[in-house]
Write a structure and sequence with these properties.
151 residues; mainly alpha
Length: 151
């Protein structure tokens, strides 16, 4: 049996690469979409009725560049572990915010990616993205999920 050349023995996980491209691309697209019109993003954040006035404008100004930077970090695998943690934290915050809208009976536009989806569908999409971020987390920290369940 022949040994593979060193350059073919890539340690690149194709699943990790695919998830990085999807998550990074979505965050970059989302950030660019939101940065184009910060006033409408501010209105969307205000409609959530979670934050008070000075924090609404701050979030509307800070979130789009953060999403672009995080997306670029995921794509380029720079500051990767921190980018994964921030990505997971943002996705959890998005899911909690959307869930609070449903629980409080508020029917507002999500402001997510410019998609016209229901809140439930957006929670589902964000949950799938969170699963991808969890995979990246386990991959980056060399955690084997099945070893967690051994006695």
């Amino acid at each position: 049996m022949q040994k593979l050349p060193v350059w073919l023995k890539s340690r690149l996980d194709p699943v990790e690469l695919l998830i990085r491209i999807i998550l990074g691309g979505i965050f970059i697209y989302s950030g660019i979409y939101k940065i184009k019109d910060p006033q409408s993003l501010e209105v969307v954040i205000r409609n959530y009725k979670i934050l008070n006035d000075p924090f609404i404008a701050l979030l509307a100004m800070a979130l789009p560049p953060l999403e672009i930077i995080i997306g670029a970090c995921l794509l380029l695998k720079m500051l990767f572990k921190g980018a994964i943690l921030i990505t997971g934290s943002l996705l959890i915050a998005f899911i909690v915010s959307l869930s609070s809208l449903i629980l409080r009976g508020l029917d507002v536009e999500c402001g997510c990616l410019g998609l016209r989806t229901s809140l439930q569908m957006q929670i589902f999409i964000d949950s799938l993205l969170l699963l991808g971020a969890a995979y990246l987390f386990c991959s980056a920290y060399k955690i084997r999920l099945f070893s967690l369940f051994k006695h």
